[in-house]
């Protein structure tokens, strides 16, 4: 069975850039009939909070993602300890005692000599006496994984064949001096333990993949299939970031956007599929293949989101809208069908509905008063239907010679107080003759 995982760090609210891999993994799981795991990478105890973790679950649920399993790395330390001990016993994890200042000096010296600033593995030459001396001074070791230093090759489902040469990389630190784990070891251990078959994540992790494959192999695990997607950027081309306070998924929810519109923008931007309405996430999953994701940047356009959100609302059925309409004290299929065409966000209907219920402040230009007085006199008797608007404006055109904007705009401004809005021939029927007489001067 296909098993995927999305592994956010609960150190803030998730943004569009985080939603992209969350949804791409969901689509892949749905398309293949697989299993979706939500894994909270909460080993950073100083920054991770349960509040942020709960917020991630709320945001995923709002987007329509329903994980099959939730795990928290903070509850799985025993697994990481066992892996740590195995790597130490195999000679692949070794203690280092350099301070950050000493490491900085080493890197600076390497650059001056025109060498890559990678770790020189000096700690491998330390004797037991050397280590005891450092620890007597109060130094606690950080632990590095000894890389094979070879070309690590893998077939990426998005980028194609990839090679990461670990010979050009520093042996990565897996355990901090305080004994806490960095991202890499817990991630690999979890992927092995949870039988993850596919890792779908941002292209900024490509270089990490070489390291992680070596660790997986050192632990005797099965290497998953990798797919590294392009990163979503904002309109200025900057990457989304919790640290920089990028607009969060919760912000989009609070601003009244449809979750499906946000999901489409987060995932179809930067693919060969057009940004257009879909019926559901499953409908996207049926069409979107990983090979459709481009290799260039995916730039998010807020204007495009507004347009997409509007198109989703314009196609929304009355049955789908009814629960929300009822909560706002609005009902009636004719009202929904009339007003939905002017919605950008669902909440806009509260203001638009005042065109029917009032109060409306008519806008009347002095040069149009005589015309509007005639319009009031020529207003047809009821009963009204959608032909009434044509009969009324036809009589006005014959009587005044006005046509086009000069004919209909004064009527719109007098009846609605605004230059845009619903189709007047339908609005007229719902308003009724009494309301129209009250609004015409």
Automatic annotation (TrEMBL):
GO terms for biological process: glutamyl-tRNA aminoacylation. One of its GO terms (cellular component) is cytoplasm. Its EC number is 6.1.1.17. ATP binds at residue 242. Coiled coil: none annotated. One of its GO terms (molecular function) is ATP binding. It catalyses: tRNA(Glu) + L-glutamate + ATP = L-glutamyl-tRNA(Glu) + AMP + diphosphate. It is found in: Cytoplasm. Gene3D superfamilies: 1.10.10.350, HUPs. Residues 3-306 form the Glutamyl/glutaminyl-tRNA synthetase class Ib catalytic domain. A motif ('KMSKS' region) lies at residues 239-243. Residues 334-440 form the Aminoacyl-tRNA synthetase class I anticodon-binding domain. A motif ('HIGH' region) lies at residues 8-18. Monomer. PANTHER family: GLUTAMATE--TRNA LIGASE, GLUTAMATE--TRNA LIGASE, MITOCHONDRIAL-RELATED. Catalyzes the attachment of glutamate to tRNA(Glu) in a two-step reaction: glutamate is first activated by ATP to form Glu-AMP and then transferred to the acceptor end of tRNA(Glu). NCBIfam families: gltX_bact. This is Glutamate--tRNA ligase. It comes from Devosia crocina. The gene is gltX.
